[in-house]
Amino acid sequence: MDNRRKFLQKSLLTLGGALAGTSLLSAKETSNIGGSKKITINHNDVILFQGDSITDNGRKRDNLEPNNTDAFGKGYAMIAASNLLNKYADKNIQVYNRGISGNKVPQLAERWDTDCIALKPTILSIMIGINDYWHKRNGNYEGSANAYKDQYRKLLDQTLTALPQVKLIIGEPFGVKNVKHVDDSWFPELTQYQQVANEIAKEYHAVFLPYQSIFDKAEKRANGKYWTTDGVHTTLAGANLMAQHWIETVK
Q1: Facing residues of 49 across strands?
Q2: Where are the alpha helices (H) located in the chain, listed in sequence order?
Q3: Which one is the CATH code of 28-247: 3.40.50.1110, 3.40.250.10, 1.10.10.10, 3.50.50.60?
Q4: Can you tell me the mean pLDDT for 133-141?
Q5: pLDDT (tens digit, 9 = 90+) per residue, 99-124?
Q6: How far apart (Å, rounded) are the C-alpha atoms in residues 178 and 223?
Q7: Quick check: bond before 66 cis, omega within 30?
């Protein structure tokens, strides 16, 4: 499980990056699966939300400013960011949203230098994977859970090489059954992608947000249509549900 981080550490040390190697160990110690330990918000942190339409949620993409309402859309990223900026007002943090509707991991990779590396995030939250599965269903994409895993690992390897101190939060792709697009036929194949996201989080010592079980549990309080509009995209209640769980990963 540690081989990939160890390889990156050795590469950075070979280049004289001894400090970077230490940072990778620090990231391992300060983040985990499921969030029994929390990521500490520090002064001048740069927090980046990345992903697809669930993160994008109607943001104005020509507004690239941090901490700006128009730049955040109407989803969980906006709600989480507003909470962060209120709670940590004394820490001078910058929060960005760079989610783009329709993206799969390959589209993240195409824009990663500009929309991630150049921003130098200290905390990086990624919510990706539902399109990597969903777009297969309409014949617009030839992918697999294995391809998703390989592409995701390459993306994180690139990230850790450039930003060895970054702390990672991985959101699980989810589908709320019997709401418009999502039915029993999505499973168990979608589950394979969810397992990959969990494995990726373990391998890279990221905090993991198990959104499938979060929505499954929420359905005991209200049906799926209360939380999502189509089984994937959130209502106002669903966005708040995601944001509340996201906020619980930091301190």
Answers
A1: 97, 125
A2: 3-14, 18-30, 53-56, 76-87, 105-115, 130-137, 145-162, 189-203, 211-218, 224-227, 236-247
A3: 3.40.50.1110
A4: 89
A5: 999 999 999 999 999 999 999 999 99
A6: 10
A7: no
Residues 240 and 224: their CA atoms lie apart, in Å, by 14
Alpha-carbon distance values, 180 to 37, 68, 215 (Å): 36, 33, 16
- The band of 51, judged by pLDDT with boundaries at 50, 70 and 90, is very high
Q: Is the dihedral of CA 10, 13, 17, 20 positive or negative?
A: positive
Tokens of 16: 């004289």
For 195, residues 6+ apart whose C-beta sits below 8 A from its C-beta are 145
What sign does the dihedral 160-28-250-232 (CA atoms) show?
positive
Give me the residue spans of the domains in the chain.
28-247
SS3 label, residue 223: coil
| The residue count for the chain | 251
Q: What is the pTM of this model?
A: 0.86
CA 200 to each of CA 60, 148, 152, 153: distance values in angstroms, whole numbers, following the listed order: 30, 10, 8, 7
Task: Name the helix (H) or strand (E) containing 210.
Answer: none
Structure tokens at 115: 């929309």
Interatomic CA distance for residues 185 and 177, integer angstroms: 9
Q: In whole numbers, what is the pLDDT of the chain averaged over residues?
A: 89
Predicted pLDDT of residue 140 = 81
